[in-house]
Amino acid sequence: MKRVLLSLSLLLSTASAAPVTLNALFMKQAAYSEANIKDMTKAFEAKNPNIKVNLEFVPYEGLHDKIVSSASAGTNGYDVVLFDVIWPTEFAKNSFLVDVTNRIPAADNARVFSGAWTTVTAGGKRYGMPWILDTKYLYYNKAILKKAGIAAPPRTWAELQQQAATIKAKGLVEYPIVWSWSQAEALICDYTTLISAFGGQFYAGGKPVFNTGGGLKALQYMTDSLKSGVSNPNSKEYLEEDVRKVFSDGKAAFALNWTYMYNMANDPKQSKVAGQVGIVPAPGVAGVSQVSAMNGSMGLGIPTGSAHKDEAWRFIQYLTSAPVQEQFAQLSLPIWKASYSKPAVTKGQEALVKAAGTSLNVMFPRPTIAQYPQLSTVLQTALQKALLGSQTPAQALDAAARTASRFR
């Protein structure tokens, strides 16, 4: 009997120590780089020798469908996935992600920015840990502004147009402003930033209202900036990486982009404007707003089909921990409030942290509805029609609102 019990004990011990392989899905662009994530993972594996992590990187535009198709197939394809703030309602409705509310220590509630928690919350439950706390900022080229005789970056969107017109008139840059207005989610992010500035809303009383008030003014601003010649016409085909490259080549005085661009545009190995990169919160509108910002944050969750939920949660806890986020705070800022007093986060990027201190507290959300992907597609199409001039802003948004009235 003793031999049987001993054998059973050894068997159980061996089983518990059996190596586990996790499959994790991340995106290629913006926020933490592939190199960052690989370094984080290598350090995690060193601390957890029985866990191996296979990393997969896809463009942001393919991230949603990868998660959905894997979950819909009922496979154990992924154990950890990166997801956008706009997807939790859809994912919760379809049971794509595990409810991890009870796994999160209560003490973390006050330690993490409240805006970060909205990234992973649906129906009062949490479906992951926030990881990328992000919004779009206004970047400007200090040298170009100085040559144009402009003492300070714009505080309002109207001032941005005026300064851009001055820069263009002086022949310093052909198209002073560059945007990510390709028919993709990037376009919705820029539009949302402007909606927040003009005091608009997407929905009110359960009905779409983005075709009125601030929503209409936001699109009118976008089309006017193209017509006036101060915005790069190729913006209609650009994503965020295109914006970064144009700005880093010194071909734009202003750009709207995520946190990650700050240190990359200041890196002389990949930028011609290193040392001349300024950053401030996106402007406001006189009499309406002081600044503008949209919630572009992302979280890490566990698909319901994962066979290794405990190990997956351990990996998520490691990646989202304050020490790891503080170590890799150059392309994405931490979710932890206390981190913003740490030299590891602030040193060398004081201007970025200062801008974040304002913007992260006023992030405006995109609609949190289960059919957000369908709404986004409708809005992308409408915005593009207006930007291309085939419809007026009012015509494009009115048509989109009629379709969007069916979405919940």
Written overview of the protein:
With 408 residues, the chain is α+β, with helices and mostly antiparallel strands. It folds into two domains: 20-134 and 296-359, D-Maltodextrin-Binding Protein, domain 2; 137-294 and 371-404, Periplasmic binding protein-like II (D-Maltodextrin-Binding Protein, domain 2, 3-Layer(aba) Sandwich), CATH 3.40.190. Helix content is 44%, strand content 15%. The chain contains 18 helices and 14 strands. It has a five-stranded mixed β-sheet with strand order 2-1-3-14-6. α9 crosses α10 (213-227) and α10 packs across α17. The chain is globular. InterPro entries: Bact_solute-bd_prot1 (IPR050490), SBP (IPR006059). This is Extracellular solute-binding protein. It comes from Deinococcus sonorensis.
Number of helices: 18
CATH superfamily of the largest domain: Periplasmic binding protein-like II
How many beta-strand segments?
Answer: 14
Report the CATH C-level class of the largest domain: Alpha Beta
Organism: Deinococcus sonorensis
Keywords: Signal
Protein name: Extracellular solute-binding protein
